[in-house]
Amino acid sequence: MSTPDPKNMKQDCSNKRECLEMLQLILDGEATAEQKEHFLKEHLEECMPCYKNYHLEVAIRQLLKTKCCHEAPQQLVDDIKTKVIQNLSRS
Amino acid sequence: MEEFEETPRQHYTEAQKNSIFNNEFMPHINSMYNFAYRLTLDGDDAKDLLQDTYLKAYRFIESFQQGTNAKAWLFRILKNSFINDYRKKSKEPSKVDYQDVETYYNSEDVDRQITPDLRVEALKDMIGDEISNALNSLDVDFKTVIILCDLEGFKYEEMAKILDIPIGTVRSRLHRARNLLKEKLSTYAKQMGYKNA
Ligand SMILES: [Zn+2]
Ligand SMILES: [Zn+2]
Q1: Which pLDDT band, with edges at 50, 70 and 90, does B109 fall under?
Q2: Whether the Cβ atoms of residue B178 and residue A17 lie closer than 8 Å to each other
Q3: pLDDT tens digits, B53-89
Q4: pTM summary value
Q5: DSSP states along B22-45
Q6: How many domains does chain B have?
Q7: How far apart (Å, rounded) are the C-alpha atoms in residues B80 and B3?
Q8: Is residue B38 domain-shared with residue B86, that is, in the same domain?
Q9: Could you say which of B71, B93, B115 is where a domain stops?
Q10: Distance from the CA of B122 to the center of ligand 2, in angstroms?
Q11: B122-157: string of b/e by CB count within 10 Å (b at 16+)?
Q12: Is there a contact between A64 and B155 if contact means CB atoms under 8 Å apart?
């Protein structure tokens, strides 16, 4: 996506809600090629609120990925393996 | 347990069982722990829930077809264990019945009110636990769809199976969940001094 010129963009979106839903469909990898093509090429570069929403959605996803994934404590991983082995010998 | 009755029962040797457990189940342990922790919001409960889930997965291993989506299968067991065993004894009794929450957030009215005008610049300054706290604060069902989709990358169809809901509900629940998350983040942004966040 190229960087659009703000002067040529609509400052208001007539169907913000539907657009946001389409945006999420695209970012979730669930949109069809046509939906993607239409929205990204024909709408996003002309519509300021949707353009901003796009960057916001991307930023939130990145923030979630970097800040909200915690690894399991190694002790717990080892415990689970041990318990399964014990279970095995009991069955 | 219904999640174990859908595929025809497989027959594995002990060696095969071990191989499935180690090569198909264990690689997802970090994602599973994170899910357990976000659901219970308690280190000890998360540990127990994760342990129960893996033991259950082993016990019912012949309901799992080798080479199919182990991650989705495990997430579904964990989610069901949480609902059956942990949600009831949760320290924080849920204030509203879930159905009410969904009906409430599905009304058009609320959608119009919740149009959080959050800016990317405000997000860039959230270098602490803001996003994590915002996610944790969401109602379990909303938190869950964000974890499955945005953290774990499950497709809508997989989420529908994990959660036993139609794909349309996955989509609308995700949309609400993201609005609620943005609303939370915009509250934090305001506290951080962003006037129009
Ligand atoms: Zn628009
Ligand atoms: Zn549009």
Answers
A1: very low
A2: no
A3: 999 999 999 999 999 999 999 999 999 999 998 876 6
A4: 0.87
A5: IIIIGGGHHHHHHHHHHHH-SHHH
A6: 2
A7: 9
A8: yes
A9: B93
A10: 25
A11: bbeebeeebbbebbeebbbbbbbbbbbbbbbebbbe
A12: no
Prediction ipTM score: 0.89
What's the token pair of residue B76?
């579904």
d(CA A36, CA A77): 41
Q: Residue A6 — pLDDT band, cuts 50, 70, 90?
A: confident
Domain that holds residue B166: 126-197
Give the span between the Cα atoms of B150 and B130, in whole angstroms. 17
B104 in a structural domain = no
Residues B66 and B19 placed together within one structural domain of the fold: yes
- Residue in A with minimal Cα distance to B32: A72
Residue of B54, B125, B185 for testing the chain A interface, max A β-carbons within 10 Å: B54
Q: Which residue of B has its CA nearest to A55?
A: B120
Q: State the Cα–Cα distance between residues B80 and B102, nearest whole angstrom.
A: 19
Report the pLDDT value the prediction gives residue A25, as an integer from 0 to 100.
95
Please, what is the end-to-end C-alpha distance for chain A in angstroms?
A: 58
Number of residues in chain A: 91
> DSSP label at B61?
G
Give me the helix-helix angle, B167-191 and B156-163, nearest 10°: 100
Residues in chain B: 197
Q: How many other CB atoms sit within 10 Å of the CB of residue A58? A: 13
One-letter amino acid for residue A86 of the chain: Q
